[in-house]
Fold these 2 entries.
Entry 1:
Amino acid sequence: MNKMLSFWTDVMKLPTIGPMYAFSKDVSSYASDFVSLGKMMAELKTSMDSYWALVSTAYAKAMKETMERAPKQLLTKDDFENYRRAAIEAFEDAFTELFASPEFSAVYGKMFSSQLDVSRSIQGIAEKNSKTLNLPTRSEVDEILKDVAELKRSVRDLKRSMEIKDDGARTTT
Amino acid sequence: MTEQELRPDQKQEVQPPGEPPKELKQPSVADEVKEAYRKLDKARAVLHTAGDIEVGQTPHEVLAETRAYRLLHYQQMVSKTARTPILVVYALINRSYILDLQHDKSWVKSLLSQGFDIYLVDWKNPTAADKYVSFDDYVNCYIDDCVNAVLKKTKVDKLTLHGYCMGGTMSTMYTTLHQEKVRNLAVIAPVVDTEKDTTVIGNLAKHMDVDKMVNVIGNLPCEQLYACYSALKPFKQGVNKYFNLVQNIDNDQFVGNFLRIEKWLYDTPPIAGETFRQWIGDIYQKNLLVKNEMKLGNELIDLSKINVPLLNIIADEDHLVSPQCSAPLNDVVSSADKRLMRFHTGHVGLIASLYSQNNVLPKVGQWLKARSQ
């Protein structure tokens, strides 16, 4: 048993290969990644609170308007139909006003940005894992995609300039 | 008819003299609940089949196909009376079959019936590998390739470029850079001056951190677009339309029309990341297009260079692209022959409705025909 355990200890100590070495080397940076992820989650929570506060206010306003516009008693089918119409109108007015307001735009933008921060942080941790396993990371693949897109444009431009030259040559002859 | 002639179930109650006449027998609450449940159940079943409904049925052939697009050529319905072919450039949002939704509301079919030769750029879904595909690629590569293919097939030197919504904006960009291939520019609800846009989309775009979004997510996912759409007319269209569906569930024509639009609304491809970055950052946030400061690759888009005949078709009740956002195109181009047509309808009603067939298309066809010989 001792022999078996010491074998694994030796593997862990190997300087440049093996996922365990890479993991143990990055322990402190993993810890700080998780701390910053926690902070971002807290920021997202704050942004979401602001978002839901606006939505709740609009909802309350719509409900109040519905009560004012809708029939007071629901006795007939028409009463229900009029209630539905009043509710749709009131909710449409309240929420359209909300979605078109500069305040909502700012709060929604901040919440979306916080969401992206959380995703980016998780992606950062995943990238470390990819590196540990000797896999290409998302950023590396991204760089290649960017290069491919630029190469395609260069080929397109070259083709076009060759076509123009060919046309010019044909016209001269 | 005497009382004796009535079958027992048809016998009428005799009104006692002196009493007010009784109203016709109302269905009981239980009957109404049962009927409502039947309609709801039918609506649920019908909605599950929305994806199967057929759209885009006007006969066509695929003239060219790449990873990015299919170039469709529609079969002529009448003998060609207009010499200049029309290349329709659809938007990158949802699918092009909205222009050929059903036989009686088809933009394409109407133009064919007026004697035009119609081609359409049908964009394909960008994949994760297309993250860096930009407007430069769409305009200077894909649209240009399609224009060249149409010119080659029809053996003419110029065509009419006809763009809808974002496709209108791309057609406008193309015309500034390749005007020698464009006889007429006809755009429907193009996004041009976003400072004047009053829509919810314009409002949401103002504070979007689009650079971060593209870096983190890549292409714009369809869920994000659904979120935007649901904020447009959240209750009148988002909720009320389903009430209307349930109420009209036994009307086959209503259900068919509903399902076709529903299918289109939820048939949303992603948008290539770099293109979306330019769309929101350059066009909506910085308003570079109308300021003549937008660049595609190294080339500046200068709208004042446009001098071909211009037709700008806009809708007064457009809640996706404000008419105030589209109309300024006519002010910034140099064309001597330019026309702004305004119609009292919405963004989709402008192209896929009976209103459009009766009021919009005859005028559009007339304008195009006069400039297509």
Entry 2:
Amino acid sequence: MLPAMLLAAMPANAIEIPHEQFQLDNGLNVILHEDHTLPQVVVNLWYGVGSKDEQQGRSGFAHLFEHLMFMGTVHLPGSGFDERMEAYGGWNNAWTSEDATDYYEAGPSNLLQTFLWMESDRMRDLARAMTQEKLDLQRDVVRNERRQSVEDTPYGIIWEAMSPALYPADHPYGHTVIGTHEDLQAATLDDVVRFFDTWYVPNNASLVVAGDFKPEEARKWITDYFGGLERSELPERAAPAMLDKPQQAIVETTDNVQIPLTVMAWHTPPALMEGDAAFDVLAAVLGDGRSSRLYEDLITNKSSALEAGAWQYSQKLGSIFALTGKPTEELTVEQLEAAMFEHLKAIAADGPTQAEMDRVLNQLEASFVGDLEGLQARASALNRYHYLSGTPDYVQQDLDRYRNVTVADVQAAAASLTEDRRCILRVRPHDGADQ
Amino acid sequence: MNFLLLAFACAHTPETPVIDLSTPPPVAKVPGFTPPIPTEHTLENGISVWIIERPGLPLVSLRVVVPGGSAHDGAGAWGAASLADEMLSQGAGERDANEFAREVERLALSLGAQTTGTATVISLDSQTKTLTSGIELLADMVFQPHFDEPDFARVRDLRIGQLKEANDDATTVAGWVIDQRYFGSDHPLSHPVEGTLASVQSLTLSDVSASWQSRLGHSGLSIVVAGDVKTDTILATLEAKFANWDGSASSPAPAIPAPVVQADEKRMFFVHKPGTSQTSLQVMMPAPTAIDPLAEAAELGAIVLGGTFTSRLNRKLREEKGYTYGARARYSGKKSYGVLSARTNVQNEVAAPALVDLRALLTDYANGIDADELRKAQGAWQTRSVASMESRSSIAGNYAALAAASLPASTLADELLSATRATVDDVNTAILRSKMEDAIIVVAGDLDVIRPALEDAFPNAGVVVEATP
């Protein structure tokens, strides 16, 4: 069934990603989403483990482990995973966040059985084929990724500087996903095996098959390949207390840049939880697009800033709302911070206008439809919703969260972002000059 | 005893697997695929229109292609086309800059102009219900941009800030330098599309306004539409909204000359970017043109060299040596020239051995590929072709790129067919057009750290050049 056809048949403004869901006896969650528009298929395997689950002194390990998942098994040694896939036109990748690790394959629809066999093979066997040589090699690759994305990218150090200022050292989000060189160097082969045995188990995973396939065939292959895997008791993960204030009010750092940058950040409610949507709308009113308040006032009208924006970074254990900006030569970073904060206070005092609310909702509705046009995006969304809300059938509820946000909600969200609760990060050029 | 049972329960390998998992499953025949070919139409004033109806989701993507991109910039006026294109949405029709942005965002449109070396592409992505309003705003951008002085001053200052920021990124700087060195300083594609700090600072409002008016006078203006439209309806709308364009007065955009390979010159250039922990290595060399019968073979070869994760470059430099996070190569073909480029960022400590390996891989490339590699590249091509037809914006963008290159609407389908039929001999013949002795190499990094080892590995081979072109 085409998702588009189903969309057309639904009531106005309603959206859905058609799917069926079932669980294997070992706890593996399975979601099937048919779309025969093009002869392609996507497999998305989501593990409920991320950098928040790393032990002290092992920052970056979840992401390093993601790299090791491509280093071969007993049945498909060496670079066989990628070699076999690419030999038939398939490709794959993965990402790791604070909350989860997501592996995905895409290619012609005749590769579905191969994709499923490969994913089950490495879920079953990866640790048996792990070696010190593989660990050392991928450690080097990850350290190069760190050099490229953190150290040599202008302002790439932001998260590294902010995390310890926002969270206690022992908080699950108290370190970055990429980790430190020191911790990456400390990772051992025993760590790899333990991490695999602990987290890479079927009852900590959710499998989406999307695209041009026959459901009865997919069910059989999934049962055959994954059904023999054993479930394992997952460690208790006590949710940390919600944080209200940062650990540090102001962080000053430097980078190899020519223009200073400021980030003002606050702790906000977790993803999909009460209040999360209101902060998303607040971010859009303040900083999304040229007609947002920050852009129109500080960039278009006053030429005070080269960049001025706002965002809500929604996470499972608690989110971050931030205002960011780069001043022109007319202002210092402190002056820009004051100017941006005035806009926040104005919304706290008077709320957004109805025109602003309408604009944001229109944009959200358009992006919901547009974002779900791609097969990979739909597969990922089904797993993301399953992980965060407990059901993949959440896209309509997600959109409704935004439709139900009121002017008063946004006003209250803005009012909660007070000076005593914020953390300011200032990145200045290495030479110490403001410009 | 209980402890032992628990240990088995946690193991990943049950004693008796339910099926034999030791061998990969068979792979069935790959499903056939032919990209949809747009229907072709011409408005009364000569504007070419390509349409692909894709009902279902209420989304439409529209692209207007204006020939003559940054190659149109005159000497010392680098960045004029790009700044002019940026100005199109800073006030147009009856709306000033703020009013224009408010209307675009109120309607939840994505509307903007992107400048390339040879064309400007104005992109509109809308919902079906806002398409007509979106086209009206787009037409205002094309025919009634304000080009007001305060808006220009702001846009220019923002661009200067962006260039300063880009100048802090070794990879970007290496890209600027290699374009300049490969194409030659007099070539229209030798400068950055965005301009340079010096050129942008010297640009005036009249420079950028003239740039737009001049390029709008080029013949070959074309429109691509993909999505939830009816051909007759959208043609009537376009006929009405683009009637202001005078095709009778238009003239062709100047042709882009082929870059001349300079003989007897040093071909390795070092750029000093102090404080970087990685070094950017970039290489460019000649390849068949887009209209050469070997174009598809050249692209297949580039996929083998560096177009997938298991390509030769990535396998050696990342997976075997651990020098880098990734290494890539790509073929880029235009009507008058073709380029094979390769790039990677490596940690400083191994910059010299990595460059030795990179050169060796590129030299060995001349020895050709084998049948397995060809099959892999053909599979990657087909998969990429399928994925490129997934979203309306991707469909419109791909066909707009063809229109910008003055290539026929059937090109994507023709190329896929040609790639599918290409032989190892075809690819190996195309590869011979890319000679290592014709390559330009740029190394951008902290020369205080990497230069001694580079000079040991390549004595007297490199020339230090300024970071900013």
